């Protein structure tokens, strides 16, 4: 059978699925004789050609408008899955989970492909090892294993995989920035940039910015991996292990077991290493979707304006409340043997910005003074090709993404809820949006959700399936994945803002 017919047949089958299953997708995509695709066509051209040639076979053309919209979304997801498979020789679990949101998945894959494989100042083996270093800060074995394979495929020196002591001095010099960006980005300043660009093994500014983008990408991607409970790939160590509380009805790779902690516990009691955030008391139980909708409606109808001084007080109140969500216990720093060689100074962890010490030394980061739109975007574009265009589209897609649903309800304006999540995430990193009333955060985000967001942002390696299950209980899994996408993007933007500001100050 020709490749076009196979593609059309697979698309026809997938159009009838409720979600994209791991087994189905693996069988369909692995059956495509990709070596027979004409060199005169791109992969996407071949797929589109197949769809056009077999249009009559697609049931989506005979469906209602609502069904057509949904089926087109599924087809778009499948096209992206095929592209991802042809690019990476695998359909990894992160891609499958993000498949809930094909519009976002498209720009995510284009961005990740560009920073790892596109034109750029850093050698390809450096790019993948920097990704390993970044994932190591959160002990994310899933990403480390994927990037180790890619590193070797790019001709990387296998000796480097023995640990940080075996890598070139130039890469070792990057580790301080890696550590600071991952946990306390507000500590980054122009002296860190200057240190990299001076001396024998110096970096160019373009290389520094490329490395910063890679670090921020994989720090935040680790948050997504743990926040969604993405399992190891089947060909990785632990890929065939399944633990208790399996969610049999979820898409492949999604929460079939607890996210990996170091070490991975079956229950909280069995692992003295993991310091948990406080459990949710009965008084902290979530309100329902209906109540949340009423709160959003009330806020939209409110005409009261607050002074700038009052807005600052509300920001500081939310900031201090976030600090109270910490466990108050000193976290232990045991690191798994196969990850430890990529981790230096494991005791350096997130510290609440509100408890950073002398306020005058590290003031709040005001977006009105240095923003992505007005400053970061143009700087990163100038120093690293046009990556700013991709990053900008990715940020905006995650922030603006909506299907106008919330749980089982339709035609819902979720913009206030999304903005509260985004601004709360950046608040934890000391970033304040002067035009935002942070009082909305406490009205729209329950304490349990704020605790989950904080853990996913700041201590992602500690997230368990229990944490995932106890928040947003009336929401669909796709909506929970969307929340984790916002964690990924808001955190990445926060890291980039601090890093690019430091670069700008060094340049001036």
Describe this structure as you would to a colleague:
- This protein is an all-alpha fold and 508 residues long.
- It has one domain (94-232, 287-507).
- It is built from 22 helices and 4 strands.
- The protein has helices spanning 3-14, 22-30, 43-53, 65-88, 93-98, 102-117, 124-136, 141-153, 169-172, 175-183, 190-197, 205-228, 289-301, 308-324, 337-340, 372-383, 387-400, 415-427, 439-444, 447-458, 465-469, 477-507, and strands at 365-366, 405-406, 409-410, 431-432.
- The strands form 2 sheets. It has a two-stranded parallel sheet with strand order 1-4. Strands 2-3 form a two-stranded antiparallel sheet.
- A hairpin with a 2-residue loop joins β2 and β3.
- The protein starts with a helix and ends with a helix.
- The model is unreliable at 1-41 and 243-283 (pLDDT under 50).
- GO terms for molecular function: L-leucine binding; oxidoreductase activity, acting on peroxide as acceptor.
- InterPro entries: AhpD-like (IPR029032), Sestrin (IPR006730).
- Residues 244-270 are annotated as: Disordered.
- It is found in: Cytoplasm.
The strands making up the biggest β-sheet line up spatially as 1-4
User: Kindly state the mean pLDDT as a whole number?
Assistant: 81
What is the succession of H and E elements?
A: HHHHHHHHHHHHHHHEHHEEHEHHHH
- What kind of assembly state do the chains in view correspond to? single chain
Question: Uncertain spans, ≥5 residues at pLDDT below 50?
Answer: 1-41, 243-283
Number of domains: 1
Broad structural category: mainly alpha
Terminal residue distance = 62 Å
Bulk shape: globular
Residue share in β-strands: under 5%
- Please tell me how large the radius of gyration is: 23 Å
Q: What is the number of helices?
A: 22
Number of strands: 4
Main beta-sheet strand count, sense and barrel state: 2 strands, parallel
Helix content: 40-55%
């Amino acid at each position: 059978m020709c490749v076009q017919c196979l593609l059309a047949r697979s698309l026809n089958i997938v159009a009838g699925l409720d979600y994209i299953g791991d087994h189905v997708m693996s069988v369909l995509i692995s059956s495509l004789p990709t070596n027979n695709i004409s060199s005169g066509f791109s992969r996407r051209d071949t797929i589109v050609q197949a769809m056009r040639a077999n249009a009559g076979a697609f049931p989506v053309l005979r469906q209602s408008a609502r069904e057509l919209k949904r089926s087109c979304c599924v087809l778009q997801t499948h096209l992206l899955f095929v592209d991802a498979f042809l690019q990476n020789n695998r359909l990894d679990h992160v891609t499958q989970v993000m498949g809930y949101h094909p519009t976002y998945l498209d720009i995510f894959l284009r961005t990740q492909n560009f920073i790892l494989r596109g034109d750029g100042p850093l050698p390809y083996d450096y790019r993948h090892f920097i990704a390993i270093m970044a994932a190591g800060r959160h002990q994310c074995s899933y990403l480390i294993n994927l990037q180790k394979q890619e590193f070797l495929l790019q001709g990387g020196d296998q000796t480097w995989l023995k640990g940080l002591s075996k890598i070139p001095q130039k890469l070792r010099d990057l580790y301080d920035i890696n550590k600071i960006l991952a946990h306390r980005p507000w500590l980054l300043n122009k002296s860190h940039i200057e240190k990299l660009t001076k001396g024998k093994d110096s970096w160019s500014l373009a290389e520094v910015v490329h490395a910063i983008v890679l670090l921020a990408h994989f720090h935040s991607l680790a948050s997504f991996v743990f926040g969604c409970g993405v399992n190891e790939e089947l060909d990785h160590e632990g890929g065939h292990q399944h633990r208790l509380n399996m969610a049999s009805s979820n898409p492949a790779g999604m929460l079939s077991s607890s996210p990996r902690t170091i070490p991975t516990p079956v229950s909280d009691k069995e692992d003295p290493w993991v310091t948990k955030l406080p459990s949710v008391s009965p008084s902290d139980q979530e309100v329902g979707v209906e109540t949340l909708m009423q709160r959003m409606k009330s806020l939209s109808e409110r005409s009261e304006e607050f002074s700038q001084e009052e807005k600052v007080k509300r920001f500081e109140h939310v900031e201090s409340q976030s600090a109270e969500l910490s466990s108050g216990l000193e976290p232990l720093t045991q690191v798994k043997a196969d990850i430890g060689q990529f981790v230096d100074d494991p005791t350096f962890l997130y510290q609440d910005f509100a408890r950073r010490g002398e306020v005058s030394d590290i003031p709040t980061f005001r977006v009105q003074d240095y923003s992505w739109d007005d400053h970061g975007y143009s700087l990163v574009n100038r120093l690293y090709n046009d990556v700013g265009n991709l990053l900008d589209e990715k940020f905006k897609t995650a922030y603006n993404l909506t299907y106008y649903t919330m749980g089982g309800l339709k035609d819902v304006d979720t913009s206030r809820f999304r903005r509260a999540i985004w601004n709360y995430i950046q608040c934890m990193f000391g970033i304040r949006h002067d035009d935002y009333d942070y009082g909305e955060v406490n009205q729209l985000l329950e304490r349990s959700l704020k605790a989950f967001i904080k853990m996913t942002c700041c201590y992602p390696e500690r997230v368990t399936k229990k944490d995932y299950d106890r928040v947003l209980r009336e929401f669909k899994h796709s909506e929970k994945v969307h929340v984790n996408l916002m964690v990924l993007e808001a955190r990445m933007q926060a890291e980039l803002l601090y890093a690019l500001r430091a670069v700008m100050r060094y340049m001036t």
